[in-house]
Amino acid sequence: MSDTMLAAAFLGLIEGLTEFIPVSSTGHLLLVGHFLGFDSPGNTFEVVIQLGAVLAILTVYGARLWKVVTDAPRDPRARRFLFGILLAFLPAAAVGVLAHGYIKTVLFESPGLIAVMLIIGGIVLIFVDRSVPEPRYEDAMRLPMVVALGIGLFQVLSLVPGTSRSGATIVGALLMGVSKRAAAEFSFFLSMPTMAGAFSYDLWKSRDILDLSAMGDIAIGFALAFLSAVLIVKWLLNFVSRHGYALFGWWRIAVGSVALLLLWAGF
Asked: What is the DSSP code string of 78-101?
């Protein structure tokens, strides 16, 4: 196996392991890619392997989501849940479209910013995990519309790489009284339209510069992203119910600090 394929496999594994936990998969991918010297014109590799994580969440939650969709015409609770997900999706979608060029050409090319955001996000996550108010909402499918919208507004913060989509939505949910398990579960559901939309839009905007010559590398990264994401999704809910999110905060601080040291050393 070539060095490039090994790097692709490693990056795919990172994508799947970090996409649904609050540590910023994009931040990890960009930093590791920077230090490995992994170059993907138009971010083709990073764009396509995200689809593996999207399919992973559909594999785990597909049956439940299909039931909600088919029940929606006759079940007000199902309709309210779907509307809540749509409402939470819209803020980041709108800002992401308007600021796409700046995000991709400036923020994604700033490893120092990514490392700093990992550290700041880790500190925030630890603080919120320890001081979170007593939960008022235990069911991810019964959140009030104002709570769903609030989570969606927090998701806008994740457009800065290193912040973490799941981290921003989980922190927002916890601050608004959602239980730790329900916060993670709502974040899972919200990830479906968010990641699918981001994947489709990125693919369209990059269509003229996509490099599909390295399909072998992309296939390896895609497969490992899918398999590792399936395992993480099944494991995460039980973990956070028992232990909370502080561990992920400390991980963020460690990764961000190491990255800053390496950047300071000239790597």
From this structure: HHHHHHHHHHHHHHHHHHHHHTHH
Q: Return all residues near 231 (Cβ < 8 A) that are at least 6 apart.
A: 16
Tell me the three state secondary structure of residue 125: helix
Q: pLDDT digit string (tens) for 192-229?
A: 888 888 777 777 776 666 655 567 777 888 888 899 88
The model's pTM is: 0.87
Q: What is d(CA 128, CA 175) in angstroms, rounded to the nearest whole number?
A: 7
Bigger pLDDT: 89 vs 103: 89
Q: Are 96 and 229 in contact (CB under 8 A)?
A: no
| Most confident option among 2-6, 28-32, 201-205, 233-237 | 28-32
Q: How many residues does the chain have?
A: 267
Rounded to whole angstroms, the Cα distance separating 34 from 252 reads 17
Integer-rounded Cα radius of gyration of the chain: 18
Closest CA to 221 of 39, 37, 18, 11: 11
The residue type of 24 is S
The arithmetic mean of pLDDT across residues 70-84, rounded, is: 90
Whether 26 contacts 163, CB under 8 Å: no
Q: Give me the pLDDT at residue 113, please.
A: 93
Coil vs helix vs strand at 265: coil
Concatenated DSSP letters of 180-193: HHHHHHHHHHHHHH
Domain ranges within the chain, ordered by starting residue: 3-264
Q: Which residue has the tokens 């700046």?
A: 102
